[in-house]
Amino acid sequence: MSCGCDFKTGSCVCDVLKEIARAQSDITENCCDTSCEKSINELLGERENRNDLDTVPVLLYCKDSCKPFKGYGAHPRNIGKMVASYYYRVKSVSDDCCAVLELLKDPNDSNHNPHDPMDQHTKQLKTTGICITVDAKCFCHITCLPAISAF
Fold first, then answer.
1. Full-prediction pTM beyond 0.85?
2. Range 88-117 average pLDDT
3. Of 24-28, 47-51, 85-89, which gets the smallest average pLDDT?
4. How far apart (Å, rounded) are the C-alpha atoms in residues 149 and 125?
5. If 0-12 CB within 10 Å is exposed, 13-18 middle and 19+ buried, where does residue 15 land?
6. Residue 22 and residue 126: Cα distance in Å, rounded?
């Protein structure tokens, strides 16, 4: 990964997301509890989990507003309870910068809809199983938090 202007996709945020996804894939399998990928994996019977450092939490900023991007979702076993987060685990990034991100939340954080990244607890971010798909070219800035064990 370069710190200069040599972007393979034309988007530095996309390039960083791809590099994180590639590094994380070397450590743990990328399965979500809510996604098309999960549905396909259930059909194929694939599943695995490991411990240690496995996630680089990221915070993304929208290109047009330069505001932090907040994602929303619901777990399939409780779709009546929506969850929001500003922090994500990169699951995958395609060549055209279509990224699958998993919402990260601290299980001790009772605020299900933070209004700002500073409102969200980050001490023990964990995977939620809730994934969203985004166009990584829509972001102008990425903040990476220190690597954690999110599983």
1. no
2. 94
3. 47-51
4. 8
5. buried
6. 20
pLDDT band at 4 (very low <50, low <70, confident <90, very high): very low
C-alpha–C-alpha distance, residues 123 and 128, integer Å? 15
Taken in order 115, 32, 142, 135, is the CA torsion positive or negative?
negative
Within 8 A by CB and 6+ apart from 52, the residues are 27, 149
Q: Please tell me the distance from the alpha carbon of residue 113 to that of residue 105, in angstroms, as a whole number.
A: 11
**Tens digit of each residue's pLDDT (9 = 90 or more) over 108-139:** 999 989 999 999 999 999 999 999 999 999 99
Extract the tokens encoding 87: 């922090």
The answer to whether 99 and 24 are in contact (CB under 8 A) is: no
DSSP state for residue 86 in the 8-state scheme: S
> How many residues make up the chain in this entry?
151
- Tokens at 77, concatenated: 């076993």
Tokens of 11: 């988007």
